[in-house]
C-alpha cells in the first residue's frame, strides 16, 4: 500500500466519523417547531395555550354519550352498535367500544392534565395567577376520575406523568380516589374566580363549576353532608343565584 493510499484511507475514516458525530448532534437537537417541557413553560401565554388540550375532555362524547350509553332505555340507531349493545344488555368484555374506548380516552386526558400540573410551576408567573390555570386542570382531571370510578369502582390513580413501563399499576380503592378528588376540588375552588368568564375566555371553569362538580361527586358517593353543604354554599353565594 502506497503512502498516498494509506493516508487517503485514514482521511476517509476520519471524515466518516465526523459525519456520524455531526448527524448524531443534529438528531439530538430539539425541534424548534414543536413545544417541549424543557423550553415551553415560561410565560402566561404558554400556560393559557396549554389549557385547550385539557379542555378537550369536556366534549359531547364524555359529557353526554358516556353516561347516557348505560341507560337501559337508550337506542342509538343501529341496534348492533356498541352503545345499543350496552342498553340491550349484550355488551361483553370482547367489545372494545364503548367502554374500552372511554377508559383509554379518559386516561389520555388525565395524562394531558398531569403533564400540565407537572410543569406549570416552571412558568415565570405570579403563583396566584398560575394556580388559577392549575385549578381548572385539576377540576377537569377530577371529572374524568369521577366518570372512571362511577363505571369501574376501583381504578388506577395516576397523579403525575409516568413512563410506559410503569403503566401497569394496581387499582386504587374507589374511596381513596374520591378522597383525592375532594381534596383537589377544594384546592381548586379556593383559587378560581367567582366571576363568570366572558369574551374570549367564555366557557372556562370558575369557582362555581368546580364546586358543582364537587357536590355531584359527593352526592354520587353518599357523602351527604359534604354534598349538602357545598350545594347550599353555591345557592347562597353564587353570582348567578338571582338568575
Return the structural class.
Answer: mainly alpha
Helix fraction by DSSP (H/I, runs of at least 4): 55-70%
> What is the number of beta strands?
0
Low-confidence stretches: 3-17, 19-28, 30-34
N-to-C terminal Cα separation, in Å? 96 Å
Number of helices: 10
Oligomerization: single chain
Give an overview in words:
- This protein has 243 residues and is mainly α.
- It has helices at residues 3-27, 44-49, 52-55, 60-68, 82-87, 99-119, 127-152, 174-191, 207-220, 224-237.
- α7 (127-152) runs antiparallel to α8, α8 packs antiparallel against α9 and α9 (207-220) runs antiparallel to α10.
- The radius of gyration is 25 Å and the shape is globular.
- The N and C termini lie far apart (96 Å).
Characteristic terms for this protein:
single chain; 243 residues; mainly alpha; 10 helices; 0% strand; disordered N terminus
